[in-house]
Design goal:
Shape of chain A: globular
Largest sheet of chain A: 8 strands, parallel, barrel
Structural class of chain A: alpha/beta
Largest interface: A-B, 49 and 49 residues
Radius of gyration of chain A: 18 Å
Strand order of the largest sheet of chain A: 1-2-3-4-7-8-9-12
Radius of gyration of chain B: 24 Å
Order of helices and strands of chain A: EHEHEHEEEHEHEHHEEEHEH
Strand order of the largest sheet of chain B: 1-2-3
Strand content of chain B: 5-15%
Distance between the termini of chain B: 54 Å
Number of helices of chain A: 9
Distance between the termini of chain A: 25 Å
Largest sheet of chain B: 3 strands, antiparallel
Number of strands of chain B: 3
Oligomer: heterodimer
Order of helices and strands of chain B: HHHHHHHHEHHEEHHHH
Structural class of chain B: mainly alpha
Number of helices of chain B: 14
């Protein structure tokens, strides 16, 4: 398992870069316009760990042209840290002049599939690598969609050979908020196209679940993780935390605890 | 409504809901495009995105201006944030850069009621904003250039003349009257063992035409480094690196703030 690197833990990694981690995932934008402390820490860590780059500003689902200036920075960053995975979200997030930093759902139709396939191919050609796209936590669906998010992502993977970054917390949240069974969602996914998995915590509100990455991963999400790992055991798993960020040791303890639960599940499967 | 128009309307609504007939019509069109959901109405879903947008940017603003947040406390800080959100176009793909335009906005709108009120209450507001912006500039500055500046200069530690080290405080605002005390006086009067983990540092430093102000909590190890620097000033960079507990983090975090090195970058 790997961890999402956050600024709160820079000092821990500077003092002791060697941790028991399979890889580190970075938020690409936090390392794009810097030659300072983040850049040098990343150089150091890239010597020790495979790096996964996870972006939030590609906005592939928007009706704007692809921002090649942004992609140039992504490409440069990938080269400098030798990233093993480059990902972003299947969403729209910006207008012509404004980055909203919100990840908003798109229309899942054949027409959009063609439009996005073309854009994903352009991005992959430019980056000279495969792009992985993450499923969203979304609080609404659009009436005119003719397929589910899972079907759309799967079709996009088939059309473009892009990868899927499967966020299990998002699937669980959406299942609760949008009224579907997360296991049905997973059944629609060809796990061969999954390049990485995200797990995180969420906030339970009176009427809905909110995706805040602000607490430990809940048991229901761990159960989804087990069901995926049973079918495809070698997918890299990232533990994400963006709010109420604990100290690094506590986060490492959570990561170890998830690993333990997964290995118990594997043992009981092999005993059966 | 086609998807392109939907995206434009939705983003506009999330960024600034506003009121009026045009906005109400746009809201109805957005709602009409959303699939009915017994668990979460379209109105509730839009409210989630609006709140998320607001709080996500508020957190980024706090991250950019920790001292300003400590100084103004929550209500005044949020008022300033509202002003910033209304007047600043979010052009950065990196959310960590979100606060970068505040100084420009303060200078551009000096007579805006929110700005004028805060400036009257905190005469050093602009200086503090300027300092925190410079902190991030240094955070992202090319470290090679920093190292080159060490190599090119004879390395001498000079505390900036108005650097202060103070005991525990409740509010940054209370520190302001102490600005005329000097760190050396404080270090002579107090031994490290009397300082607790909650020691705060305040310094005000002339920088171009303005004054930089910074307040930050220190650990015991960091306080001891200041004592060591004060009692046995290192004569070379190598001697400096030999100081007990010195780390790359300390160098990057503190050295530019307490020595003349920054002015040579």
């Amino acid at each position: 398992m790997g961890l999402g690197l956050r600024v709160e833990h820079y000092r821990d990694f500077e003092l002791n870069p060697l941790r028991d981690l399979a890889f580190l995932e970075i938020i690409s934008e936090n390392f794009m316009d810097t030659k300072g402390r983040p850049f040098y820490l990343l150089q150091q860590l890239a010597e020790l760990y495979p790096i996964h780059m996870h972006g939030v500003s590609l906005s592939i689902g928007s009706h704007l042209e692809i921002d090649f200036e942004y992609l140039k920075k992504i490409k440069l960053l990938k080269k400098s840290c030798g990233a093993k995975l480059v990902s972003d979200h299947l969403c729209f997030a910006q207008s012509a002049s404004h980055h909203s930093h919100a990840l908003l759902p798109i229309l899942y139709t054949e027409e959009n599939l063609k439009r996005l396939s073309c854009k994903v191919n352009q991005v992959q050609d430019f980056l000279e690598c495969s792009l992985s796209l993450e499923n969203l936590s979304a609080y609404f669906e659009l009436k005119k969609s003719s397929m589910s998010e899972a079907q759309f992502l799967q079709a996009l993977c088939r059309e473009t050979s892009c990868g899927l970054l499967l966020d299990l917390n998002n699937i669980f949240i959406n299942g609760q908020n949008l009224n579907f069974d997360p296991h049905d969602y997973l059944r629609e996914i060809d796990l061969n196209s999954v390049r990485a998995i995200h797990v995180a915590g969420h906030l339970k509100q009176a009427q809905f679940l909110f995706d805040n990455h602000g607490s430990s991963v809940c048991e229901a999400v761990i159960a989804l993780l087990k069901s995926v790992i049973d079918r495809q055991p070698h997918i890299p798993i990232t533990l994400e935390r963006d709010e109420n960020i604990p100290n690094l040791q506590d986060l490492m303890d959570e990561l170890k605890s998830i690993e333990k639960k997964l290995s118990h599940a594997k043992e009981s499967l092999s005993n059966e | 409504m086609n998807e392109k128009d939907f995206q434009t309307s939705l983003l506009r609504y999330i960024h600034s809901p506003g009121t009026g007939v045009a906005m109400e019509q746009s809201l109805q069109e957005i709602i009409a495009a959303i699939k009915p959901n017994p668990k979460l109405s379209p109105e509730s879903a839009l409210e989630i995105y609006q709140n998320d947008y607001f709080f996500r940017h508020l957190e980024a603003f706090k991250h950019f201006y920790p001292c300003l947040h400590m100084l103004l406390e929550e209500a005044e800080f949020q008022a300033l944030f509202h002003f910033y959100l209304q007047h600043n176009k979010m052009v950065f793909s990196n959310l960590n850069q979100f606060g970068e335009n505040l100084l420009w906005l303060l200078d551009h709108y000096p007579n805006h009621p929110d700005v004028r009120e805060l400036s009257d209450e905190y005469p050093f507001l602009r200086d503090l904003v300027n300092f925190e912006k410079h902190y991030w500039d240094f955070f992202n500055a090319d470290k090679e250039a920093v190292h080159r500046s060490f190599e090119n200069e004879q390395f001498v530690i000079h505390f900036k003349s108005n650097f202060r080290l103070l005991g525990p405080i409740k509010s940054v605002h209370h520190l302001y009257p102490y600005r005329h005390k000097h760190i050396q006086d404080f270090l002579i009067q107090h031994r490290p063992e009397v300082l607790t983990e909650s020691t705060h540092l305040l310094f005000m430093t002339p920088y171009h035409q303005t004054t930089l102000i910074q307040v930050e909590k220190l650990t015991r190890e960091e306080v001891e480094i200041f004592y060591e620097l004060n009692s046995n000033p290192p004569k070379s960079f190598e001697e400096f690196l030999d100081i007990k507990n010195i780390s790359s983090h300390w160098i990057e975090n503190w050295l530019p703030r307490i020595t003349y090195i920054q002015s040579k970058l």
